[in-house]
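The protein record passed on below.

***
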Amino acid sequence: MIGTVAGSAAMYQAMTTLGFAQESPFTGSLKLDGDPKGASVLILGAGLAGMVAAYELRKAGYKVQILEYREVAGGRCWTIRGGDKYTELGGFEQECKFDEGQYLNPGPWRVPYHHHGVLHYAKEFGVEMQPFNQVNHNAYLHSSKAFDGKPQRFRHINADFNGHVAELLAKSTNQGGLDQAVSTEDREKLLDALRGWGALDKDYAYVKGVDSSERRGYRVDPGGGQMPVAEPSDPIGLSEIVQSGLWRNLSTGNLYEFQTAIFQPVGGMDMIAKGFEKEIGDLVTYNAKVIEIDQDDQGVTVHYVDSVTGGEPKTATADWCICTIPFSVLSQVKTKVSSEMQAAIDNLPYAASVKVGLQFKRRFWEEDEHIYGGITFTDLPNTLISYPSSEFFSKGKGVLLGAYSWGAWAMQFTSLPPEERVKKALEYGAQIHPQYNDEFDNGISIGWHRVPWTLGCYGTWSEDSRKAHYQAASSIDGRIAMAGEHISYIPAWQEGAILSGLDAISRLHQRVING
């Protein structure tokens, strides 16, 4: 909601304060030196935190087993394809009807270049990666309250906003407004820089012409032979841009988490999960719903039932436990931990979010509007439309991320049955792409706060809650250590989960070998 109200820059500042926008300190393969002497570890949850822990612990000589609530591994590293079925809280069941080769990543959908841990294991497991287009200058910025509701090309708003601001700065510099801040020598260099940055003319004005059109595009593009002569385009006035609010999303691609290069696995984000699963899938007991976690000085005992059929509880034991169950779920499980750890579990809220995937009969965004990847931003409740960064120029159908909403808007979406959520995403998207109405094929929606095995998108630490509870949450409590994106300073990202898993087993290993 910070992003909705104040724009991406304010949102990023808040995310940094809350620990969302941090570089990964991953430096390479983990080395767990020393003999674990046959120690056993029970891991709860086969998401990336649990699987990286299992992978590295087994290499170090531990006896490892994993209990996983779902029928597959991966946790929120999840991809939905045609034929997949999913039932959310409340009993709504959806079956994905996407064509073969089409998919939606309901959870993670991109990997920044500086998330070294994710990329390390993707490379180690042979997961093919491809570029993810975050910024596309030919995509749109849209406000229902500006320009009569007509979407504006990103390149138009970006070029014109920067050009007008550069002109204002140049005028201020020429008029001596910056004399106290800029030396005489720097003044001339600054003016040259502003001219280049803002595409200003010789008089330091941002006007219609070749310079501005080389940024924002031409009204008639240059051609060949006896084609019409190129015509410059008309810039939008600064006041209109400022009043529209469309400038708020211009900086998104400059934010650290979204700077090029960004990657995605070929074929879906769960290819990373599948890479781990190939290595440690034999350690996993699937469809295992944990109902109680107990511990004493000798080890850990976990009771679980079949998450599909129920039945009589079963028991798993080990010397140690790595618990990656989200606190949103763990707070409802009887767990024998210290009062400090229990307080941490009970006091971490989780974010509400929803994604809607829409399959269309043809890739009209490419064929009609020449948009190849990237994101369109809007002030409507769907918040954005993301275009696929793969299979460019392919014939046939394609899938858009038609909504990615948070907070109150996510709650509004999921107050509706799934088919109505899809209709809403179509209604909003058609205000940007009228082709929606004729080209729509089918869709599916995932509201993370209604996903039974997470009950939320990610853990939302505040500065105060980190001070009060994070130390306890990240400490080894008797024979139990917590791990996951929520036990990191990069929450909501897969990198946070992987680093958390590695950190937990590193500290646990030291405790084991030092006995």
Q: What stands out?
A: The longest helix spans residues 154-174.
